[in-house]
# Entry
Amino acid sequence: MSILEALNWRYAVREFTDRKLPDDIIAELVEATRLSPSAYGLQPYKLLVIKSAEVRAKLLPFAMGQNKVRDCSHLFVLARNAKVDAQFIEQHFAYVESERGLEPGALAGFAQHVKDVMLSLSLEQLNHWAENQVHIALGNLLTAAAIKGVDACPMAGFENQGFDEILGLSELGLRSSVICALGERADTDASADERKVRLPSAEFSLEI
# Structure
């Protein structure tokens, strides 16, 4: 499918079959998510891939009755960093220097600029910024899934604290932000036949 065909084909799946997605497809979607853009390249989040049916069953009580959390092939959980501080930023730029073959400290000036900008924000602002970065990655994941013909359903309606406890995210310095069920749409999912409704182009896009 072309990109536009894929985006017209996709919808938020309500019911999944019991078909399991191949490991190579999951690996490709993980990589597409990893390659998502983020401000300053900081990537203030991690991706958890929940393949275990047992773990997904434990998460279901905290998913507001959305059985697709249990029934999908894989559940992706995007979790933001609980803390964005000077150490996190310094580690990022040290890694960039290493990966690009630069001398240690070569990016110190830029790193300081990023610290000046980011650390001037309140905790609430930093958390909001990290959530925004997570949703950029989610958009990339959904587009990649559509192009690969993988059905998906993004969800923000779940109990974060319950997910965090089941997955041990606090110990990892993470907080769950958004989840995405992946798999194959079921024939019984009536939503598949519904017309996709978006604003007309003339109303959506404004040329200035």
About this structure: The beta strands are 45-50, 74-81, 151-155, 174-183. The radius of gyration is 19 Å. Residues 123-147 form the longest helix (25 residues). Residues 20 and 73 are 5 Å apart (CA to CA).
